[in-house]
Amino acid sequence: MLSPRRVAALAALRARVADRMSKNVSLHVAAGQASSMRALLQAASLDNMVGSVLGLEQHPQQQEEDGRHGGSSMSMSMVIKEMGEMVKEGYELVGMFNLGDHFSSSMWLWGLLDFHGVGPRCQRLAARVRVLFGRVVEERRRINKDELHKMDDLLSYMVAMPEDERLQDSDLIAVLWEMIFRGTDVVAILLEWALARMVLHPDIQSKVQQELDMVVGHRPMVDSDIPNLPFLHCVIKETLRMHPPGPLLSWARLAVQDVRVGKYFVPAGTTAMVNMWAISHDETIWGDPWVFRPERFMEEDVNVLGSDLRLAPFGSGRRVCPGRMMGLSTAYLWFGRLLQEYKWLMAQPVKLAECLRLSMEMKKPLVCRAVHRNKTVY
Ligand code: HEM
């Protein structure tokens, strides 16, 4: 459970990142360029994750500064750039086909079938993660306890824990890496889908903007506005339904004996996974499942955090996404800010074809044109 102070600090960080992201969009607008949304959203998401997990934040005017973190000797921009490269490499590796994964649990045969060198690349990535995160952890430990208690990021919290409760270094690094790796792209992917839908459905886009104008007005949207924007919630939920970024859930079950489930025969030894994509497109559960209709969530509220299995885009139970509150709040805020400040128009045909890697992405990345709305948000 996060303390109110940490919740407020995370919200303030999200808002600062939203400002930086919006400024980047306005640079494209000023240059008359269309925006390639994926790179822009990924950069913002990495910025947010590195800030909330490691407490490292790069201020535009301080490209090479490190002073906020107790005299770190590492260049902030270098650390963030390397984190971004490592996340990208991790995604590529997870998405690569490796014959060994399908045929063998024995290491030597797995190595023999690893034609693309996935194994050695994974080992090199793991070594990079250990070195870079190891240095960040070491530097944080040098900060005195009083200062550490004032910091709101996950690493500082974990380093400040009583000694007998602390994780070993290898586990600590694994947790930090997993949070950044899993949390970075998925938020960007969700927002890319949501914006694609806004470009395709200008009527729905206007409806969100009307709600924002009415509830928030001319100042920038903040976290505390989120509960007062029900239609914006519906749009994000409908995006999660139609384009769940994590379509296969790991509530894995092993059949210990041969069994029949409905009309299917499941042999002993089979691992079964939950296909959330199929559930959220099932016409016996969702009327008109192929129609993007956010209003359906106005008619019936559905909790998407794991308690309603008709739509559990963050999973459910023991392996539920630990970043779901943060991911959802970030998506609500950034989506609201992007729509509050800009009208989004088609720059290239929007294709909704999907591509499954670690998350389910748009196969053809979204490129769209932003136009400043008349409302002044600064
Ligand atoms: C809109 C945003 C997000 C979506 C849709 C999402 C979705 C998911 C899904 C579907 C899973 C797998 C659950 C399962 O296999 O049963 C998952 C796991 C995970 N997510 Fe998220 N997630 C989001 C944001 C985040 C964020 C912001 C973080 C980090 C702060 C994060 C960290 C993780 C981690 C560490 C796991 C692995 C948990 C485990 O294996 O036990 N996620 N997420």
Automatic annotation (TrEMBL):
Gene3D superfamilies: Cytochrome P450 (1.10.630.10). Pfam families: p450 (PF00067). The keyword Membrane applies. Its cofactor is heme. Heme binds at C321. InterPro entries: Cyt_P450, Cyt_P450_CS, Cyt_P450_E_grp-I, Cyt_P450_sf, Cytochrome_P450_78A. It comes from the Eukaryota. GO terms for molecular function: heme binding; iron ion binding; monooxygenase activity; oxidoreductase activity, acting on paired donors, with incorporation or reduction of molecular oxygen. Keywords: Heme, Iron, Membrane, Metal-binding, Monooxygenase, Oxidoreductase, Transmembrane, Transmembrane helix. Belongs to the cytochrome P450 family. This is Uncharacterized protein. It comes from Oryza brachyantha.
